[in-house]
Design goal:
Layout (H helix, E strand, L loop, with lengths): L1 E2 L2 H9 L14 E2 L2 H10 L3 H23 L1 H12 L1
Antiparallel strand pairs: 1-2
Helix pairs in contact: 2-3
Length: about 80
């Protein structure tokens, strides 16, 4: 889990991922993909199991999409080096 910076929070608001109304005095927290997977695998209820399965399906699909697009893969690699 990590705390979002002010810039990251503004980016999420501009993408409508977070509502603009309402007020918080502290920055939001977010889970990384690995943190969410770990949390959903530790929790022992039906909802957590379904979330875990869905996360794995999404990551598999994203990996397949990236590997099928060499130009995207090269761009991601170049972003990781900066």
């Amino acid at each position: 889990m990590l705390q979002l910076s002010e810039v990251e929070l503004q980016n999420l608001k501009s993408q409508n991922a977070i509502s603009r109304w309402g007020c918080r005095r502290t920055l939001h927290y977010a889970f990384t993909e690995h943190g969410m997977l770990m949390l959903s695998s530790v929790l022992n209820n039906q909802t957590a199991i379904q979330v875990n399965i869905q996360i794995m399906r999404v990551y598999t699909k994203i990996r397949e999409m990236i590997l099928s697009r060499k130009d995207v893969l090269l761009k991601l690699e170049s972003l990781g080096k900066t």
